[in-house]
Structures
1.
Amino acid sequence: MNQENSNEQAGVSRRGFLTGALAAAGVAAMGITGCSSPKGASEKAAETTATAASGAMQTTDPSKAVWPVVEEIEVGAAGEGQIAFVSETITDFVAEHDVDVVVCGLGPAGDAAALACAEAGLNTVAVEKQSTGNYNSATIGGLNTKVHQHWGMTYDTDAFLADAMLDCAFQGNMTLYKHWIEKCSEAVDWYIGHFDNQNLDDYKLTFAAGDFPDFREQYDKTSLSRSWNTSINLPYPAGELASILAGILEKAGVQIRYNTPACQLVQDSSGKVTGVIVKSSDGYEKYNCAKGVVLATGGYEFNKQMLKERCRPRSVPGSWLTGAFGNTGDGHQMGLAVGAAEDEFPQAIMLDPEQLMPYMRVNKLGKRFTPEYEPYGHLALAIQAQPEAYDYYIVDSALATKIDKIWTPSSSCYGPKEVWVAAATSPNAVQADTIEELAKKLDVPADALVATVKRWNEMAAAGKDEDFNFPGDMMMTLDTPPYYATKEFADGLCTAGGLLVDTECRVLDHDRNPIEGLFAAGLTSGGMFYNTYPHNLNCFSHTRNCLMGYTIGQVLGA
């Protein structure tokens, strides 16, 4: 089955209204040298060229980074985006403006930053690369917001923090996580307060938005890892939120300029960022910013070179699901050009499996490899770790009568049962009357697949998964032909590594000192995620966008 069609055909992807194009590039394997003691910045710079030329792994130049691999995996971007960042110094301008702050990018983080700055009384301009802003999910999260209190939710924040730190392998900045826990409710309450619908009954908990309206547990206890019941559905179509937010911004006094990408930062002799250069239809324009510049240009999904440099090949998904076509790493590159530090490599990518239901999964060897009921990011990572980074999910023709066994709050909230049944039994699936025939069509070892299905059925009958601890009462037998198998890749939603920041969203240099006048928010900022994005902390990213924008307004407006 075509990897781009596995969920798109049936309209069942979690962000199914988005589409992405795939561009492929090969990656070569090279050797590694040993580690050395830390050196000063000047020594590092002097050694970069020699180090890269020797084929060493350690280098301070991302373009020279190499990834030794066991199995070569194609590295593809979501498409070929138009890069706005300009490295050569720009000196000719068709116009020059004096303002307080310029926010670069109008995704959720940029929206919040521009709104907060304007409400703080600052002369605020928001520049956006595309013809409209971007908002890809009508959700937000948090802990103990007014919405959560409305639904009677309480959370063990110590357990939440523990899960967060485990997910980032303690590579993330714990101070940033604690700040998120302490301040997110204030920011989300502020943000939601701007919408015209203030009926909290309409702000459903995502896990309770399907067939489990009374689900009030703080996390899903079924999976091995806790999937937190923190996500809230905003009562608006996702495709309308960009324009809704634009209206809110303009009402607050923000000047919005579309089709006007930020290209380069301006510094004075002390290193302070004093402005930003943008490109309009007339040419380059310079903004002198009395308060600061905010980088909120998203990730770099549409920049193949940055993906190859920053993400290990095994982490880059087989397909992308994003409509943020302007995400080419412009903010990252602008920050790096003025001395910013960024997350070390490999940087994280937000991943989803293409199929969100916990159907039985096997790899190309015909073997199971994971407990199928896990938070989406964890399941996607398990898929990425398989030979050639794909798997097959398998169901039988009795799925419609069996699906209730896997119908849970976290599996029901993205669509009705009929949609998921249709996706797994669609004409795009490989169909066969026996498991042996199915194995032949999938080109997997027949004896292995037959043994896997046999053991699955035995454990389903016993009500216990002895191999991967999948909940035994959720195991649907595979015994009613015909059988259906669908090839599945992980979908990439966005990159999740960026410039290092502090709790005030000030961009940090390599000595971890703030670069005066420069701020970053959302996917352009870093310091929190390592190897993966923690989907089990549901809606953490959108809440982080909101909090960071809100924080920047407080800092600049003080």
Note: Confidence is low (pLDDT under 50) at residues 1-54.
2.
Amino acid sequence: MTTPPLLDAFLPLVADLTRELPEAERYRRLLGALRRLLPADAAALLRLDGDTLVPLAVDGLSADTLGRRFRLDEQPRLRALLAQRGATRFASDCSLPDPYDGLVEGLSSQLQVHDCLGCPLYLDERPWGLLTLDALDPARFDGIDLATLEAFASLAAATVQVGERISALTRRAERDERLMQAYREAADRQGSHELIGQSRAHRRLLQEIAVVAGSDLSVLVSGETGVGKELVAQAIHAASPRAHKPLISLNCAALPDTLVESELFGHVRGAFSGAVTERSGKFELADGGTLFLDEVGELPLAVQAKLLRVLQSGQLQRVGSDREHRVDVRVIAATNRDLAGEVRAGRFRADLYHRLSVYPLPVPPLRERGRDVLLLAGFFLEENRARLGLRGLRLSAEAQAALLAYDWPGNVRELEHLIGRAALRAMAGGEQRRILSIGAELLDLPAATDSEAPAAAAALAPATGDLRQAVERFQRERILAVLEVHGHNWAAAARALGMDRANLHRLARRLGLR
């Protein structure tokens, strides 16, 4: 590698060090420069988080890669890269599985990576993460001097360090640092899923969590079934000053009316039939911490009045007892109902509603989160890949388009279950292959399984305009859909449409898309 190409790659990145750029854009430029310098089919930047590598940016890999989490105990090739201080190239016949098998974009049949380079990044003499390069040609990296990659990794580490310092200042100003720590603590403590997403709606939700977490205000988390209201409550608690105290949950819809009061406030022996011992309620268990009331709209009116008293005074009485207990509890409630409408209908107390909704926090449905569905799908694909013992599990371009087009009435929970079912179906029909691709037909979505759906929709549309207008309308919709799947990468979209890129550009200009 001669000096000028190396300088050509370095100079824009050095200039970027002095610019305030979004983290994603800074890393995107970094990988773009790396692929211009070294002839790879795909590149990735991964951050080391405990025993897991988290993708921060990818170039040439499937969009769902950003939602995956690569555990080192399951990825011996990534573990081997981290074990070396300098760059490493694996032999083309290396038996270690490659984590990106099946994830390189633009493939129709060949799935396996055959040439792989990687180099760890160090910040303050500690391993921070990895830069990886992959190629389908086993001889692609034959003429590369590994010192070139190591020099680039040094600049990448500086880029990462600058970006992290800027991000740290921003997080501190907005109290996001405590929120990020909360996610890690919640994951360690409860094993729950992290909040994954990059959409504007998701970022707005994270900002709202950061704003309210440090206070003691009651929060009413609202949203459709399956959007992740309990995960939001966990994040609020973990980012609060009460994080060292327990988060106690109660599903108000899962108990008969006769037991809800006992579950909330406890009871003494003999308070009712079956009360053979004295028992503390959820409020006492959560003393000093947080009580999460899921489906709070299901509470009976009689219990609502007693709950309001505890919220107002901090004092409660166990069922069957005259003695009062004082508790210090923050309440986070959740509902999929319109509680304001329930108040107007007389099914929910207005005073309790206002007490619970001091800080209302709506959680956006999945259909409003755009391409977050692909990141979440990647997370669930990686979970299922590990559980099923597969080397690779990916979504076809058609499957990605189907996920983006679907309305998701069941939200994230529906997506999780759908990916699990599709993975099992793919494995059942995979003929013992270790790298499986999930097509749209395996998702079993109404819009994905019917190949005649677009034509049917066109047939049901008003019969206005001539044939040429109808054809142009179809072309426009098809191009936009494929662009959305491929992140508005015109080259990838042209490959997916089976067109020459120049022809696609000309067609797009004629259709008014460019």
Note: The first helix runs from residue 3 to 16.
